[in-house]
Design a protein that fits this description.
CATH class of the largest domain: Alpha Beta
Helix content: 25-40%
Bound molecules: the ligand C=C(O[C@H]1C=CC=C(C(=O)O)[C@@H]1O)C(=O)O
Enzyme class: isomerase
Distance between the termini: 43 Å
Number of helices: 11
Catalytic activity: chorismate = isochorismate
Number of domains: 2
GO molecular function, one term: isochorismate synthase activity
InterPro entries: ADC_synthase, Chorismate_C, IsoChor_synthase
Structural class: alpha+beta
CATH topology of the largest domain: Anthranilate synthase
Strand content: 25-35%
Shape: globular
Number of strands: 22
CATH superfamily of the largest domain: Anthranilate synthase
Pfam families: Chorismate_bind
CATH architecture of the largest domain: 4-Layer Sandwich
Amino acid sequence: MERARSRSSPPLVSRTTAVDEPAFAAAFDVLPSPRTTWSAPDDALVLGGGAAATLTASGGDRFAAIREAATELFESGDVHAGTEAARPRVFGGFAFHEGACDGDPWGPFPEARFVLPRVQLTIADNGAWLTVNAVGPDADVSAVEDRLAREVDRFAALDRRDSADAADAGRPPRPGISESRRTTSREAWRESVGAAVDRIRDGDLRKVVLAQALEADLAADFPRAATLERLAEKYPDCHRYWFEPDGGESAFFGATPERLVSLRGRTVETDALAGTTGRGETPAEDEWLAQELLDDEKNVHEHELVAETVRDQLEPFAASISAGERRVRRLATVQHLHTPITAELDADRHVLDLVEALHPTPAVGGLPPDRALATIRETEPFDRGWYAAPVGWIDAAGNGAFAVAIRSAVASRRRATLFAGVGIVSDSDPDREWDEVQLKYRPILDELEGDGAGDSADR
Ligand SMILES: C=C(O[C@H]1C=CC=C(C(=O)O)[C@@H]1O)C(=O)O
């Protein structure tokens, strides 16, 4: 089993200065690969370019290995961050399970990979900040300060942030899809959902989340920055992420409504999110669908299995746990049942202890976890890679925030592979679950299909 390794060793030097906010696309395009973006509803937007340090790991102990490597990286630092949001953080993610990155399109993705950006633009409530980080032999204070001065000049020459309308007018169009292939035919889907339902009715399983993948050939080059901007406008209250492995040929990205866990000090916030319906054509229809979802036994059962399990998994770490009221979370393309859960820890912990304990929640795995995972591996004819796995950041104090990487895809210049899944319980109907998968492709598919599109891939 590979151990986590840092390609450089501490100490770390980090310098930050305030800058005028550039246009997102201009900043994204000027940053070197590997690029990272991270944005959460209650967090700053971060754009990272290059790697001052890269932590990778694989195997069953990948969470512990990354925790150790991050702790070592942050052990000794000479940091002038200027603002909290620009403090050194490593950004990245994990594979769904061991061996999940073996097949296409996951070749360039390790089973765990976190990057301390070399150059980082942070856009926070208190302004825009530019940071240069260096680790090991590069960690010379005057070299870092010189590099920061050069980066400040480079960023000062970029276009300023436009109004949303002006930015939209200047963006490349959506690429369009010339051809698409599914991993799973409707017939194969009916069979595997039917088999899962039988196992649930026999008492062998309680729930399993089965997913599909959709590979789309793009009719034009994938417009990376424009896609991220459009997702930000359409999904402002989702976690949005972009991770490039080495080489920058492809990237894993998405806009997920599901937080896995955030830890600040001893305060934990997490969500149970499961149970889905569509959006209505009118506000009244939306309300009707939301009420139907709240009253629907199958969806409430599917949701409660997640909420209960998240509470149970936090229990060993917590001095107290409280769950909010179950309600409907409305997104641009779907509505979900949502229960916010908070806890106070009984001792200091690293965020990765919680990530490891919670992943995979039954919103993306199932119950009992081992049997559900075995069912997923036997049933799904593709590798999940980082789909439905934890993505997020870690800081020097062991705080962090992780989201569940759903509503996601891997994209290269002319191809994208999209992933989406559904929770199967005893009264799941294969055709309704099929339709729900198609709804869950929408956030990414909407950004790929051409604007005039007769090229829809998911009907
Ligand atoms: C597994 C996915 O969604 C999960 C999150 C919210 C609702 C879900 C559901 O209702 O089935 C899924 O558990 C996905 O979008 O790929």
